[in-house]
Amino acid sequence: MTVENFNLENGIEKNEESLISKDFFVFQFEFAKELYNKKKENDQTINLLNVINSVAPIIREQVLEYDEDKSIFIEHLKAGITEENLIDKAYETYLQIEKESDRSIIYGPIQKFGPLSYVTYEDNNLNEKPLKDNISFHFSNNYDMTPRQLLNIEERKKILLIF
Amino acid sequence: MKDIKFNHPNTKTLSTASWLLDAIPETIAQKLFPQSFIDSMRVKESKIGWSLGTMIWGQFLDARGNLKKQLSDELLKNLKNMKKDEYLIDLLKPPLHKPKSAITNIEDFYVMYNV
Fold first, then answer.
1. Contact yes or no for A62/A93 (Cβ under 8 A)
2. A-contacting residues in B 10-29 (Cβ below 8 Å)
3. Which residues, including other chains, have CB under 8 Å from residue A22's CB and lie 6 or more apart?
4. Higher per-residue pLDDT: A54 or A150
5. pLDDT at residue A103 above 90?
6. Do the beta carbons of residue B30 and residue A161 sit within 8 Å?
7. What is the per-residue DSSP string for A53-79?
8. Residue B3 sits at the chain A interface (C-beta within 8 Å)
9. The pLDDT of residue B38 is above 90
10. Do A34 and B79 touch (CB under 8 A)?
């Protein structure tokens, strides 16, 4: 029996994640700006893009450039993006990517079951040595069941037991 | 679990890192995770959590992708009041959650869930 059948038989189908609201982009940008203002008091070399790169992933992914092998974000803005239009452009780009993209290309081979997913590489330790033979599992939001609902034991066991 | 066991039989460990590990009451965690997994839970002090998608930031979104205003205001307030000797992780005071990581032998999960 395939895992896909397990899912169907138990009524848990692949869920589409909800789109993130623009308010969240604004919030993360506000956080980055405030942190930048604090940091520059002690470090005149720092700029806002350094901070966005470090602490504002949803903004970074839409507005910063990748390096040549598409693995590292270069700390300069994509063409046509300025600090003034950054939020609008970031959100437009996000919506466009969500509409068009195959998320597995961006995030690697993700196996998803309800609000749980796993990947076969260790992405929880990006600044540490990757763990060999490790599976990393993740919690995600979706319409039918949120991570907090995982605190409901029966729902959680139902999900864990079917895969 | 069955999918992992079937498709990735060489897997030795299972791990995660999330603010949710800090939110789960211990009594519930004991019913969901092997004791070895619970014992391994540690606050993830490194800055990396801030730069990843939802390890920290997920707590500020509801299930429909909307911003949780009260919690986001709390974080911004804490940042504004941040002292020079504080670390970013110190901003995550209750009701906010620090990210925790956990890892254990996957066999412990297989045993617990009879896989």
1. yes
2. 10-18, 20, 23-25, 28
3. A87, A91
4. A54
5. no
6. no
7. HHH-HHHHHHHEEE-TTSSSEEEEEPT
8. yes
9. yes
10. yes
Question: What residue segments make up the domains of chain A, in order of their start?
Answer: 22-101, 104-162
Extract long-range pairs of B64-67: CB within 8 Å, 24+ residues apart: B64/A18, B64/A141, B64/A143, B65/A17, B65/A18, B65/A19, B65/A20, B65/A21, B65/A24, B65/A141, B66/A21, B66/A23, B66/A24, B67/A21, B67/A23, B67/A24, B67/A27
Which of the residue ranges A37-46, B29-38, B45-54 would you say has the lowest mean pLDDT?
B45-54
Residue A7 is predicted with a pLDDT of: 39
**Structurally, how many domains does chain B consist of?**
1
Q: ipTM score here?
A: 0.90
Q: Please report, for residues A25, A33, A103, the alpha-carbon distance to residue A20 in angstroms, rounded to integers and kept in the order given.
A: 8, 20, 15
Percent of chain A with pLDDT over 70: 55
Which pTM does this prediction carry? 0.78
Structural domain that includes position B76:
2-112
Measured between beta carbons, the chain B residues lying within 8 angstroms of A140 are 54
